[in-house]
Every structure is written in structure tokens, then in C-alpha cells.
Design brief:
alpha/beta, Arc Repressor Mutant, subunit A, nine-stranded mixed sheet, 15 strands, 4 iron, 4 sulfur cluster binding, 4Fe-4S, rSAM_sf, coproporphyrinogen oxidase activity
């Protein structure tokens, strides 16, 4: 069971960011906390959360006392008692921007039980940071990282972005080298995407920036080679970790387990339903005040989807094939026997014939077919296209 808390507050909007966010007032923060606690109390918790993720926005924009309050709400309603103290598989991640990292905030996060910090670096180069609209400097990244390490969190992740406007391969490799030199436990390397309603999307539509698929592919491949050589195992297209430091919250989500989302724009998947809260702070507050959450009173979530085993299987293959471990056909066939498995297996065989996928563990099975379907490196370069084909394979009506 996962918990995602969306903290929608941000001082400014980066050019690439499409996540819901607002510049907060004191009244916004006050109302947010009141509504968040009320929403947590409305959830019919089937069990305690074993992973927690605070994202945004910028959770680090909150004061230390506000972070403590958010932690207290999380522990009281979602983690249930001493779950956060039990160690084992429990993980609690908070996203921070370099400029928001202070010793006081880190102390507050340690107090409430946070185990993992994910810091959005994006680049170490001033010109590229400026092109993204990021509000931090290279020096702030280094100061923030030192403080995070000194605070003693169990895992630290750094986010980097590549294929930025005007970025050369040499510049990207310099960013990777600088990140590796800091020795984080986990690295996320995201190819820049152009989301609608962002400043970068407008620049793309105006021809001020251009896409170059071949350049992106070279950067992907070079990144995978470089990080593997220095001990970061790739476990998903964009994510690399030292042993024991993969992001458990994301793994839970990609495997189509359950999670609860709290806050405006937060998505949930539990109790047989999937949906997302309204992406509007005032509208979300008003709905919570009226008792809206799922089946109780006014519906809190939008685009609610009743989940079937076949729907979960489809999503498990779309997201699971992005993971190096792949997806088990046998396990999902047993869980969702009514899904169109003949079409899925036909697609799997075609992907294998085209060199985009393999059966994992094939050498151990006499029938010559491994249990898990995994993408090859070439397949991972085309993971989005493979996902679209998988959607088509699961589309019974189209067949």
C-alpha cells in the first residue's frame, strides 16, 4: 500500500513542468493543511501505508513546523502507529529543490521518519538551468547535497534531465560525471519531454526548440553504459540504483499495487477504483469540506475508472515493460484470465523476433520460454511505442 501526498506549492514554475502547482499565500497553506487532514480521515484505509512519497510542487517550500505537521498527519492517518519505525521495506520519500534545503527542514524530516530524499538537480550547468527556468545554482546543489548527507538519510536520489535545448553530448556526460562524483544512492535520468501548457511546449510549437530522436537515443545509450560501469544498476528506463536503493514507492506503483493520493491533483488506485483529485486547490478544499472522497458524499476524484483484472494487467504490462525485470505473463494470466492473452502473446513473439524483447530465464525452462517478458536495450529505447502497441493488444473491441 502506497501513499502519495501532493504539496502543490511552488515559488515559480519551471519551463518543463506540467504538475499542478500554485504560489501559496498564508491562507492557502492554512486551508491546505485543514483539508488534507480531513481528506485523510475520509479514506477507508484497507491497511497501513508501507511506502510514502511527498511530491509537488515543492514540499521543501513548507516551513520546518509545517513539515512536522504534515508528518504527524501522515503517521496518524496513513502509517498507523509504529509502521515507520519497523524498518524492513518501509520507505518515506520527500522531493526537495536545492534552494529549499536547510538544516532545519532536514531535521524536521528526520524527526517525522523520512528515509529517502530525492533532489531535483536537472543540470550542474548554469546556462542549461537557466534554459529550464530552474531557480537554483550549481553551488546550491553542492551545499544542499552536503546537508542532506550530513543529516543521515538512508537513501539519497538525484534527478537529472537530458536532451535539453542546445545541450551537447559532452555537456550531458559532464553532468552525469559530476553527479556520479557525489556518490548518491540512486540516480534518475529523464529525457526532457514537452508537455502541453508549459513554456517549453510553446517554444516547440514556435520552432524555437527542436526534437532530435537520434541525439536522444545516443544520450540514452551512453548514460546506460556509463552508470552500469560505475555500479548503478538500471531497474527502469530512467532509474538507476546501488543495491538496496531502488525506489520502492515507484516499484509499487508500476506493479499496479494500491496507493492513496491526498491533495489537489493527487491520483489514487485502491478499493477497485482509480481516479484523481481535482487539480484546483480551492475546488479541492471545498469538496473536502463537503465530505467528498470516493463513495462518501460528493465524489472527490475525477475520471474515476472501475478497475478490472484485465485493465490492471494491461497497465502492468505497459509500465512493467519499462522495468528491466519485465513482466510475468504467467502471473497475470492467472490473475486476469479473461484478458486477450492470445493477442498479447502474439505481440510478445513479434517483439522478440524484432530484437526488442526476450524471455527472461529462457535457458532454465525446457520449453524454451522464460517466465518474464523483458525489453532489450533497443526495446527500452522504444518503450513508449511498445506501450502503445501493448494497449492495442489489450483492446478487445479493436481486435
Amino acid at each position: 500500500m502506497g501513499l502519495y501526498v501532493h504539496v502543490p506549492f511552488c515559488a515559480s514554475t519551471c519551463d518543463f513542468c506540467a504538475f499542478y502547482q500554485v504560489r501559496p499565500t498564508a491562507a492557502d497553506v492554512r486551508d491546505y493543511f485543514a483539508a488534507l487532514e480531513a481528506e485523510a480521515a475520509l479514506v477507508q484505509w484497507p491497511r497501513a501505508a508501507s511506502t510514502v512519497f511527498w511530491g509537488g510542487g515543492t514540499p521543501g517550500l513548507l516551513s520546518p513546523d509545517a513539515l512536522r505537521r504534515l508528518g504527524e498527519i501522515t503517521r496518524r492517518y496513513c502509517v498507523h502507529g509504529d509502521a515507520a519505525d519497523s524498518g524492513g521495506d518501509f520507505e518515506w520519500t520527500v522531493e526537495l529543490a536545492p534552494a529549499s534545503v536547510t538544516q532545519a527542514r532536514l531535521a524536521a524530516l528526520r524527526e517525522v521518519g523520512v528515509t529517502r530524499i530525492s533532489m531535483g538537480v536537472q543540470s550542474f550547468q548554469p546556462a542549461l538551468l537557466d534554459a529550464l527556468g530552474r531557480q537554483h545554482s550549481r553551488e546550491q546543489v553542492y551545499r544542499a547535497y552536503e546537508r542532506i548527507r550530513a543529516a543521515g538519510f538512508a537513501s539519497v536520489n538525484l534527478d537529472l534531465m537530458f536532451a535539453l535545448p542546445g545541450q551537447t553530448q559532452a555537456e550531458w556526460e559532464a553532468d552525469v560525471a559530476e553527479a556520479v562524483a557525489l556518490a548518491p544512492d540512486h540516480l534518475s535520468t529523464y529525457c526532457l519531454t514537452f508537455e502541453e501548457d508549459t513554456a517549453l511546449w510553446l517554444k516547440l510549437s514556435q520552432g524555437r526548440v527542436k526534437l532530435d530522436a537520434e541525439h536522444e537515443a545516443r544520450l540514452y545509450e551512453r548514460t546506460w553504459e556509463r552508470l552500469a560501469a560505475v555500479g548503478y544498476a538500471q531497474y527502469e528506463v530512467a532509474n538507476f540504483a546501488r543495491p538496496g536503493h531502488a525506489c520502492r514507492h515507484n516499484l509499487n506503483t508500476w506493479a499496479m499495487h494500491e496507493w492513496v493520493g491526498l491533495g489537489p491533483a493527487a491520483a489514487s488506485q485502491h478499493g477497485g477504483w482509480r481516479g484523481a483529485n481535482i487539480a484546483d486547490l480551492r475546488g479541492w478544499v471545498e469538496r473536502v469540506q463537503r465530505g467528498g472522497r470516493g463513495g462518501r458524499g460528493e465524489r472527490m476524484t475525477e475520471d474515476r475508472l472501475r478497475l478490472t483484472p484485465a485493465q490492471l494487467a494491461e497497465d502492468a504490462f505497459i509500465f512493467g515493460l519499462r522495468m528491466n525485470a519485465g513482466v510475468s505473463l504467467e502471473a497475470w494470466r492467472a490473475r486476469a484470465p479473461d484478458a486477450p492473452w492470445a493477442q498479447v502473446e502474439q505481440l510478445a513473439q513479434r517483439l522478440i523476433a524484432e530484437g526488442l524483447a526476450v524471455w527472461a530465464g529462457q535457458e532454465e525452462r525446457p520449453e524454451g520460454k522464460g517466465e518474464r517478458l523483458c525489453l532489450t536495450n533497443r526495446g527500452r529505447l522504444l518503450a513508449d511505442a511498445v506501450g502503445l502497441e501493448m494497449m492495442a493488444a489489450f483492446d478487445v473491441e479493436a481486435a
